[in-house]
Amino acid sequence: MSSPTGKPTPLYHLYRGVTAAIAPIAWASVARKLRKAGVSTERQQERLGAASLPRPPGQLVWFHGASVGESLSVLTLITRMGERLPGTEFLITSGTPTSAELIAKRLPPRTRHQFAPLDVHGPVGRFYNHWRPEAGIFVESEIWPQMLVKGRERGTRLALLNARLSDKSVEGWKKRPKTARFLLDQFRLMLTQNDKTAQNLLDMGADPARVKPGTNLKATSAPLPVDELALARIRGEIGDRPLWIASSTHAGEEETVLAAHKELLKSDPDLLLLLIPRHPDRGEEVKRLVGQAGLTCAQRSTGQALAPDTQVYLADTLGETGTWYALCPLVFMGGSLLKIGGHNPFEPAQAGAAVITGPGYYNFRETFDPLIAQGGAVEVTDAASLAEAVSHWLTNSPALKAACAAARTCVQDQANALDDVVETLIKALELE
Asked: For domain 228-415, which architecture applies?
């Protein structure tokens, strides 16, 4: 495959200068957030490119994802690639304490995690000096100019995986075509989630020979972990009460969910809502909303147990979503009632659940469209239609079972593409 030929543009040089100037401010902000999250001083230094682990001998493949969703989506891929390349070691980097905590619990064999360096000359140089990865795979929309350019200069073979760019981002890059082309030219391969993203990359100036439609990696991720002890305990507290789940809700959405639940309680006073905010630190805020809606609440983070008269169980904790999905085959996915973009529906589908979504799932359109078409998900627009959808599946067991089966089939269809992704990466990045 041909190597990049574009030259750095004035805008790229400007970016280097600006990032160098603001690096102390950026580092102070990053360090403060890491300290607040309880990250050790040694690990904080990883953001400055100072590794806290030794480089393993042999071939090292590096994956980078910004946050929880991006990072977790590649763990199954790393596992499969590790089986295919038994002598290869792996590094995964991310930027947030939450992602680090969750990744640490699910690291594949021969894999280690580090915080990604700030995209500044010094930290990036130290990172590459230590790790010397043979290949670097950037996940979703993580286009960091200096990480890309310095990596290619040092011989790291680069790929953009599961590529997804917002329309706003694409339009912005189109106004800077030379710089967009220069940065995209650092990649040997750009493997996209869908045809639209492939076309967007081409419109931005990507080499057509390097752009290939792929699949959504989140569809191939391993199922979320389940705490069997916690699951048994909560099942005992719920008993035979009917239940539905609203997961990954954002500010401005809980009001709609709670209004739907109040409507459902009119016909089934025993019904329980398990409410999972996308950001657990909003727990107190969401609890107040439950109270303002006139509903009783038990809050997971404070250790409150479910009582027979509890109407909403607020699951405001981190890392337990898989346990909650194992409780119930009916899940509303948040981030979709407002213009947020939606969240990954394959996580509940993998657990055997049918999915309800609002209309704003545009970041996961390639995932939701087949799921809806096959009957594994339905779309709602407001509290009334949400209540109607929940009621339909709660009172029609055959319909719910059919929807769950359709969701599982859709997930399996997507997961079968994982081997193709592995082989494509191995070939393009010359890993064998």
From this structure: 3-Layer(aba) Sandwich (3.40)
